[in-house]
Amino acid sequence: MWFKNLRIYRLTKEFDLNAETLNELLESQAFVPCGSQDSSRYGWVPPLGRHGSQLVHATNGYLMICAKKQEKVLPAAVVNEKVEELAQAISEKEARQVGRKERQNLKDEVLLEMRPKAFARSRLHYAYIAPQDGWVVVDASSASAAEELLENLREAISGLAVIPLSAKNLPQQTMTHWLTAPEAPAQFEFGHECELRDPKDSGSVIRCKNQDLCAEEIHNHLVAGLQVHKLGLVWRGGVEFLVDDQLSLKRVKFSDELLEKADSADGDNAALRFDADFAVMTLEISALLKDLLTAFGGTNTESVSVEEIIAKASRSEADSLAG
Prior knowledge:
The protein is α+β, with helices and mostly antiparallel strands. It is 39% helix and 27% strand. The protein folds into three domains: 7-74 and 117-164, no CATH class; 76-116; 171-295, no CATH class. It contains nine helices and twelve strands.
């Protein structure tokens, strides 16, 4: 359950739902396995898995949720081979070429035939809502996976307004300044990984792993004009991660000391172990993100959500009609 990736979104409106109410809202979109002709299904499941029945797990004001995505596995090579066999049979029988549109129809028929027999692959995507911090934190390595979870959460919670977290200072410029100095911000140390890009040539990328980031070679690249777009950092010696220019954290690794602290919970009770992990993890992430945002100059609260833009436009239109 320990998050390995952190994609952080800012709540632009107060979140006042408790665990019970949120659970009721999510129940309308509870996960249902794929039917015979479904290519995929998405829905909410208990974060505790088989050890729980509630779709929301609450600890210290934080609300953990979990989405499950199930997809039918149909290898493209297998589908294309079957389509090619059918197209070849038609060509030989009718002495003509099979056109693109007809091939697409054949492909649809093949998918219809093969889908009920296909294996189903499932993935879990965890996230938690932190009303006191004003964040939604998603454990997703890609922006598309995080947005899919949020899209389904918006469908369940009418009026949910969240946008990607942004800082007042541009991350790539700030990280470049740190590494050029070289001096890590307060509470942080440099890790051993970074990605440098040429602002004038998006295809020019240098990736450094297991390197001394204060080495002369890296410094020379920065002096030549390259900027830092990803940077390995260590927070208070307890959490290692790679932060990028979108303020997303990847390859998050919690120290053994923190993991052992959570392991002190009752080893025979899955719910208590989950609760301890969740409590320790959210406490550390909350403090980490606050220090990280301070290092980047604070939170940019001037950006607005899509919901706010639409609401503003609606008010303007209403005022115009009233006038």
